[in-house]
Amino acid sequence: MPADIHPAIARPRFAAALLIALSLLGSACSATPATAQDRVAVEQVLAYADRVRLLGPAELATEITSLGDGGDIPHLQLQLALALVQTHQPVDTARALGLVQRVVASTQPQAAALQPLARLLAARLMEQRRLEDQYDRQSQQIRDAQRRIDQLNERLEAMRAIERSLTPRSPRPAAP
Predict the structure, then answer these.
(1) Are 135 and 7 in contact (CB under 8 A)?
(2) At 32, phi and psi to the nearest 5?
(3) What is the DSSP string of 102-121?
(4) How many CB atoms lie within 10 A of CB 149?
(5) Among 30, 34, 83, 115, which is most exposed with the fewest C-beta within 10 angstroms?
(6) Given a cut of 80, is residue 151 above it in pLDDT?
(7) Is the model's pLDDT at 175 over the cut of 50?
């Protein structure tokens, strides 16, 4: 993804790429020998990702509140992370990354089936954080450059005013 893309533009691409990857991961998980319980856990998280993507801001806030902190339950941690990503707030992206990394590092048996999905999501969230940081730096540079331009324009206008006050104006000769 190009580095000059605004995070608001990158997020729909992120969501689309995530859903494609998640569906591929879901297909791969169903093709590998895994327990039915593992497949169901992955399918539930994938279905949740698709559902939460369509929620409005108020519904999303309610959903995040209802999930709480995710506790130590891997599928709840992933669900909360997926909901937090949809808020489009850097602080929530960081929180989502922390939740996903907890699933990746988990030694719980129910986390094993979700870890490939969690690693994929963690990589995407780290990239998103990097882009958000880059966007913040560029925005600050633009604000600083605009402030400098405004200061220089004020100085230039002051110099023009001094020049106008120093230049004597001669009366125009009358037209014949």
Answers:
(1) yes
(2) -90, 155
(3) HHHH---HHHHTTHHHHHHH
(4) 10
(5) 30
(6) yes
(7) yes
